[in-house]
Amino acid sequence: MNISKIRDAILIVTFLGVWLFMPPMLDVFNQRASLLGMPLIVVYVFGGWLALIGLTALLASRISDDSPEPGGRDGDLALGPDIKLPDRTPGG
Prior knowledge:
This protein is mainly alpha-helical and about 90 residues long. It has helices spanning about 5-20, 25-30, 40-65, 75; strands at about 35, 40.
């Protein structure tokens, strides 16, 4: 998957999370019903939270799979051909 598509998917998941936890959506599940002995709103909030974490983890793993290796060819070109990093060693 292309990295720009993954970033777009992360943005969509972010807006989905905001939309899922807005008061109008929470009011839909704020009923006297229960599921497995827990109020429906609790199941909705924690289930949605868990789903968002899972989607975020999936997308994050895809980003790390598509990113170049540190110190690789792409990493060398990131600073430009003539730019050198300063020496950060103590006393250096």
